[in-house]
C-alpha cells in the first residue's frame, strides 16, 4: 500500500564541512592535491557506474548488491589513500580517531540490521517451497496446505523487523555527524578528512535506500547536498536524483513492495491464491502460463538475489570491522595514546564483538 510522504527537504549538515577542512587561503602541495583528486575522481566513477540504466532496475536485488559492492570498494580506497598519505595512526589527531571509531560502530550496527532483514526474508522461502510442493498434487488436502502456506507467506512478508527501527535512529545520528572536525596544521589530515567525508556521504545515502527498501516506507529516504567543489558532486547529485525520484514514484503508485524480485514472487502468489482457495480456472484468474512454474522461477530468482546480497553485506561488514580492528591495534601499541583512551577503546572493541 502507499505511504504518506513528508515534504522532501535536502539534508544540510551543520555548517560547511569544507570551510573547516579547506579554509579560504589554504593550499595543498601538488602531491597531496594529486592524491585527493585521484581519490575523488575514483569516487565519481563508482557513482556513475551505480546509476541504473532504467527505473525498473532501482531497488532490484542485483542493483542493491552492486551498491553494497561499491561501498566496500570506496572504503578500501580510503585505506589505500591513508597508506599513500604516509600518515601513520600515531600522527592522527584524537578528533579524527573519534570520528572514525564512532562512524564504524554505526556502520556495523546498520549492517547487522540489514543482515537481520535479509535473513528474515530468506526464511520466507520455506513458505514458497511448501506452496510448490503442495501444488504438485491434485489432492484437496494438499490444496488446503498450499493455502495455509500462502497465508503464512503473506503474513511473513507483511511483518516488520524491529531492528530496522533502530537502524533508522542510527542513520539519523550518523547524518548529524557529517560536519567534520576542524583540521589545524595538517595538510595530510585535511585530505584524509575530505576523503572520509565523501565516503561517509555516499555510505549514508546508500544505507538510506536499503532501509527504505526493507522497511517499505520512503519517509527516511535522504536527500543530501554536498559542496560543488567536490569532484564527485555532480555524479552524486545525478545518482541521488534519479534513484530517489524513482523510489518515491513507486511508492506513490501504490506498490505494496518496491523490491523488484519480491514483487515478482508476490504477483505469482496472488495469481495462485484464487485457484487454490476458490477452484478458479487459471484462465479465469488471468494466469496465461503455468502458475506453479512461474512461481518456482520467481522464487529461485528471489532466493539467489538474497543470497548474493547477503554475501555483499557481510563483506562490507568485514571491511568496516577489519579497518576498525587495525586502528584499535595500532592505538593500543602506540606510545602516545593516553590511558583513558586505551580504556575507552577496549570497552568499545568488546561492545562491537
TrEMBL record:
Superkingdom of the organism of origin: Eukaryota
Annotated InterPro entries: ROH1-like (IPR008511)
UniProt keyword list: Membrane, Transmembrane, Transmembrane helix
Recorded topology in the membrane: Single-pass membrane protein
Annotated compartments: Membrane
Chief subcellular location: membrane
Any single GO CC term annotated in Swiss-Prot or TrEMBL for this entry: membrane
PANTHER family according to UniProt: BPS1-LIKE PROTEIN
Record family assignment: Belongs to the ROH1 family.
Stated name of the protein: Protein BYPASS-related
Organism encoding this protein: Handroanthus impetiginosus
Origin organism lineage: Eukaryota, Viridiplantae, Streptophyta, Embryophyta, Tracheophyta
